Automatic annotation (TrEMBL):
Organism this protein belongs to: Naegleria lovaniensis
Primary role: Functions as actin-binding component of the Arp2/3 complex which is involved in regulation of actin polymerization and together with an activating nucleation-promoting factor (NPF) mediates the formation of branched actin networks.
Domain of life (superkingdom): Eukaryota
Any one annotated GO CC term: Arp2/3 protein complex
Protein name: Arp2/3 complex 34 kDa subunit
Length: 314
């Protein structure tokens, strides 16, 4: 299976060119990510050495409330991080990072690693704070993260037990429900392997509200099972164990949780593409066999019916 990288390749490639004086030029790049994030990377009008990266993240109020901007400033010392960000094409972005590529050329390796990961760093703050409170045994109300326009992540702490991340996923294609069920069953079965015994527990429910959300008042998804099934709602619960909540593992755990929804849908699309390729191959082989069975000799043959009458086949 392929893990999607936290760094944005488009931003990384543009930065690489701008750090090189030979390829440095005025640029303006609009882009996006699998989770609906949008960004604009452009040089300053008066100085091509100044780059502005403006990023819009859905659910920005929650991420900022839990220290997203503070974590970003801590990760990018020496760079200007402005929040709210610049207004570009009538869109006020969540934050804007400004870098002078000429002055920061000595830190090129660091910024090529950190700046393309800025969205993930910003979104990680809420997960890191939840993990820290849980490990300290502090009381924590369920956190609702509207990471997509119609989907949420809920972080629920069971004191002394586990920290659970619940994803509400709206499957618009009925086929995705079947594929997702089979795909996620592999995660459950992974626990049977002793080598993966430390993997987090996972549960998937389709057309039924996740058990962890029954008593959560902030849930915005339908609670009626008939509506959940009709609209295609599914819920994935990931119970994090102590090994994933260790201080040196928390950032990696947060990145994986942020990318899980994109990871799931990416592999569902790959599965469907693979199935279609196999189907086309089978059809092509069948057509080859049918064509091979055709009589291309041009000879006329005589055949008889059950009653003994003879007829000619043209």
């Amino acid at each position: 299976m392929i893990f999607l990288e936290a760094a944005n390749k488009i931003i990384q490639e543009v930065l690489t060119k701008q750090f090189d004086p030979a390829t440095r030029s005025g640029v303006r790049v609009n882009g996006g990510d699998f989770d609906g994030t949008k960004f604009v990377l452009e040089t300053d009008a008066g100085n091509k050495n100044i780059l502005n990266l403006s990023v819009y993240v859905h659910g920005e109020k929650v991420f900022t409330k839990y220290g997203g901007i503070d974590l970003l400033k801590k990760t990018l010392p020496g760079l200007t991080v402005q929040s709210p960000g610049l207004k570009v094409e009538d869109q006020v972005h969540t934050f804007t990072i400004t870098i002078d590529v000429e002055k920061e050329e000595k830190n090129k390796a660091k910024w090529l690693q950190e700046i393309p990961r800025c969205k993930t760093t910003y979104m990680s703050a809420v997960f890191l704070q939840a993990m820290e409170k849980h490990t300290k045994g502090e009381t924590m109300e369920p956190i609702q993260i509207p990471y997509r326009p119609d989907e949420n992540i809920y972080l629920i702490s069971y004191k002394g037990k586990s920290l659970v991340a619940v994803y509400s996923i709206l499957f618009r294609d009925p086929d995705d429900v079947v594929l997702a069920n089979g795909f996620l069953c592999e995660f459950k079965d992974a626990k049977k392997d002793r080598a993966l015994n430390a993997a987090p527990n996972m549960n998937f429910s389709q057309g039924q509200l996740a058990g962890e959300l029954v008593d959560v008042k902030s849930v915005t998804e339908p609670r009626d099972e008939r509506t959940l099934k009709k609209e295609g709602w599914g819920f994935v619960s990931i119970s994090l164990l102590d090994v994933q909540l260790k201080a040196d593992k928390q950032m990696n755990t947060a990145e994986l949780l942020i990318g899980f929804r994109s990871y799931l849908h990416y592999h569902l699309k790959c599965m469907k593409a693979y199935m279609h390729i196999r189907m086309r191959e089978r059809v092509e082989k069948l057509m080859q066999n049918l064509n091979a069975a055709k009589d291309l000799s041009g000879k006329k043959t005589e055949k008889k019916t059950m009653s003994g009458k003879t007829f000619k086949q043209n």
